[in-house]
Amino acid sequence: MTEKMHVVVLGVSFIGLEAAAYLAGKVARVTVVGRGAVPLEPVFGREVGGRIMQMFRDKGVQFVMNSGIDRCLEENGKLCAVQLADGQIIRADLCIMGVGSTLYTDFLKTSGVEVNPDGSIDTDLYLEANAQNVYVGGDIANAPVHSIGLDRATIGHYGLAQYHGRIAALNMSGKRTQLRAVPYFWTVLFGKSFRYAGYGKAHEIRVVGSLQDLKFVAFHFDESGKVIGMCSCNRDPIVSQFAELQMQGKTLRKEDLETEPFAWTSTIISCQKM
After folding, report:
1. Boundaries of each FAD/NAD(P)-binding domain copy (predicted)?
2. Average pLDDT for the chain
């Protein structure tokens, strides 16, 4: 990699943005191509995603949104450009693709293990599939999530996969242990710490603090006013506290935030008291 290189990054989730942030200032140009209006919108929402995009632009990173790469172009056997879905051509000496994953479980369809149409596999609280002594974890596991009332979900994140591995191993070795999953994600972009805990599509998002100063907490509500997720920037450990609140089986609602948005942190049972 040299300072003269032009790099295109496909994908505006964690992997794509982390790659773009690392490359900014090290190469001639970084262009990020992504679907949707702003980066990380499915997780953080449009307002926070828009502020993140502005932060990247301030560092010289260019964005082409609501688009995708149609094909890669070569010259003398080397990548020289990418052509977007609308026909636009962008110079590219290197193309990094953070395009997600596909669940390859077709080989199990005649095994007796029930496979869902999307390739995921339902598990119980012990990560056991419908077939006895078959345990499932990681991206392919449609497993109960403690923080959403034990409804099942497939969540592609290495931290949860590691936790699944631990729980599955305990149960395979005869130490019956129930899953207590609270999704938690984090990243650092240009020295700014972003964290998220929870799960589900937000009906409403309330930001407390300053988006401009990148010091805020965003509460994600469902249609009933329940807080189903929380993201923050430079407000640690508030998201970790919310994850612990969910782990303890407690619920946070919109009305709990009206007077003092962080009073609920005093209701968390400390490790010493548990």
Report:
1. 6-145
2. 95
Domains of the chain: 6-97 (3.50.50.60), 106-172 (3.50.50.60), 187-267 (3.30.390.30)
Please give the Cα distance from 272 to 122 (Å, whole number): 36
How far apart are alpha carbons 103 and 98 in whole angstroms? 16
Beta bridge partners of 33: 10, 64
| Rounded-to-integer distance, Cα 261 and Cα 251, Å | 14
Q: Label residue 271 by pLDDT band (50, 70, 90).
A: low
Which structure tokens are listed for 83?
């052509």
How far apart (Å, rounded) are the C-alpha atoms in residues 132 and 172?
A: 11
Q: Which two tokens stand for residue 6?
A: 């032009």
- Residue 125 to residue 145: CA distance in whole angstroms: 9
Show the beta-strand stretches assigned E in 119-226.
121-122, 141-144, 152-153, 184-189, 192-198, 204-210, 215-221
pLDDT of residue 140 exceeding 90, the answer is yes
pTM exceeds 0.85: yes
**199 close to 183: Cβ distance less than 8 angstroms:** yes
What pLDDT sits at residue 238? 97
27-46 pLDDT, tens digit per residue, is 999 999 999 999 999 999 99
Number of CB atoms found within 10 A of residue 257's CB: 19
